[in-house]
Design a protein that fits this description.
Largest sheet: 4 strands, parallel
Radius of gyration: 17 Å
Distance between the termini: 14 Å
Strand content: 5-15%
Number of helices: 10
Number of strands: 7
Order of helices and strands: EHHEHEHEHEHEHEHHH
Structural class: alpha/beta
Length: 264
Amino acid sequence: MLIDSHCHLDRFQKKGDLDAVLSRATASGVHRIITIGTSAEDWEGYSQMARAHPGQVYWTAGLHPCDVAEDFEDHLIQLPTFFGCEPTPVALGEIGLDNFHLPKDPEEIAEVQRRQRKAFKFQLDLALQLQCPVVIHSRHAFAECVAMIDASGVDWRKVVFHCFSEGPDEIRILNSRGGRGSFTGILTYKSAEPIRQAALAQGLDTLMLETDAPFLTPEPHRGKPNEPAFTRHTAERAALLFGLSLEALAARATANTVAFFGLE
């Protein structure tokens, strides 16, 4: 039984495909799914979704760096209230820094980066207060994200860099602090040898798998929209990488995910 530890189910719900997606996931052996909050627009919806699918859908709440608009502080003020709701989010995230999706104007770049850092610090402070797991989005911002987490006092053992797309040197930086990376369908791409080496460098004890659906579709479905059922393909490639059966690999990744997020 596999867990998709990171996806965005609101994309399927808006298309009216959610029930079919959940059914296909179960049929593929993916029995639990963590849907990741990115803005105030999805927090309440994800809370209701998790309530409607207990034991199958879990949720997180956080303000994604690409959703840090001019009114971001108004949204951040709402965020702590969701951690008093039932079902409670299993993590704070995804949060972090993104230096890839930036405007072209230098003055606008500086302002966007200022807002991102302020939002990231607020949420790291909240995570420290809540003592909850943290899901990190880091794009072209690895060193700065690490530095801000270091400064925050957040327990690194509760930190996962989702969609890990760096190499073995960077994964060792996370692991040396107690943090980890989780791996998407990129693991199946021919060009992704550094990421496979990062997975090997981290090892099985903290391995977690995700789709980031509807993005980053694994082989053999690359070019089509991704969905939680395709976690299986990433697990099959990871099993080959580690020299394990699919069942053994799935058991390790699932146990790690259950422990990290505190799933029942």
